[in-house]
Amino acid sequence: MKILAMVLAGGNGTRLHPLTAEHAKPALPFAHGYRIVDFVLSNLVNSDISPIYVLVQYKPRSLVAHIRTAWAPWSGGAQHPITIVLPETSGEGGPFTGTANAVYQNLHLIERERPDLVAVFAADHVYRMDVRQMASFHQERGADVSIAAVPVPIEKASAFGIMATGADGELRDFQEKPERPAPIPTDPGYAYASMGNYLFNPPVLLELLDQSNRRGDTDFGRHILPCLPHSHRVFAYDFASNKVSGVKPYEERGYWRDIGTIDAYQAAQRDVLGPLPRFNLVNPKWPIRSDGQRMPRRMLLPAETVPAATAGPAMGACANVMLVE
Asked: What is the 8-class DSSP label of residue 224?
């Protein structure tokens, strides 16, 4: 099965300011030389997904440089081509105005490659995932669209797109960052949050994006996904069911973190530290790839430029954040 991936890496990460003042969020260093974007790219490469298009826009210089150097073995070969896509500066294109608009402007890539499925994945999360398992789930249920889902505490759910599902996982309602999130019926202390990872049947995606463009809609979470339960077969894929080889017994099962705020960034960095980390960066059976050990010149962002309420020891191994030029 041929799966084409589009990685959404163009957001400006306003809640991570000042770290994102000069760098796109996916380009921020995480730990041991890895950048945040390396996690989604590793999952796609490890899952044998090809081709991979990385859609970039905001402050793209360091992100583009990282992919072109650290991912050089995969960005030029035929087995796992990774291609960077910038907005058109002439013609009918223009800046990407949202996640859906970014994919809409690049539908010609889907039409040219003729994949069996299209994966639209976010670039700002820390996790391991076998995408082929999600694709099997999608096919077995005859889905038009599948959305990767993870349980989050109900008190934190308003920061995510929330899904209400039936017993079989079919989507009944999608709420983008609701004030009153719908709880999981069997576990009311939690809600199903969208991971920002979607699988689409190509004809369905083309139809949805064409319709959304005519309406002036630009975003998957705000505009497209809430309408899907009434028109298509949409299923929530429970990320907890995704099994990746090599995970140690002491690691947190189904580990996934959205690096959306400085607090979340710090907490995720703490999770990979120590002899028994919640998320072990070393896993030969499902490696975090990229040439993370050969780092270009570093620029230190002093902790005093980070709000005092958020500065702390998880900013790297000390009170500084390393941003790479």
From this structure: I
Helix (H) or strand (E) holding 323: strand 321-324
Give me the residue spans of the domains in the chain. Answer: 3-130+243-324
Q: What is the DSSP string of 143-211?
A: -SEEEEEEEEEGGGGGGSEEEEE-TT-BEEEEEES-SSPPPBTTBTTEEEEEEEEEEE-HHHHHHHHHH
| DSSP one-letter code for 223 | I
pTM, full prediction? 0.87
- Please write the tens of the pLDDT for every residue from 65-96: 999 999 988 765 555 589 999 998 655 668 89
Provide the 8-state DSSP code for 230.
G
Helices 37-46 and 61-70, packing angle to 10 deg: 40
Give me the half-sphere count of Cα atoms (radius 13 Å) on the Cβ side of residue 262: 21
Residue 108 is predicted with a pLDDT of 95
CATH code given to domain 3-130+243-324:
3.90.550.10
What's the maximum distance between 2 C-alpha atoms anywhere in the chain? 54
User: For residue 70, with 0-12 CB atoms within 10 Å meaning exposed, 13-18 middle and 19 or more buried, which class applies?
Assistant: buried
Distance of alpha carbon 239 from alpha carbon 39, whole angstroms: 15
pLDDT for 243-285, tens place per residue? 999 999 999 999 999 998 999 999 999 999 999 999 999 999 9
Residues in the chain: 325
SS3 state at 104: helix
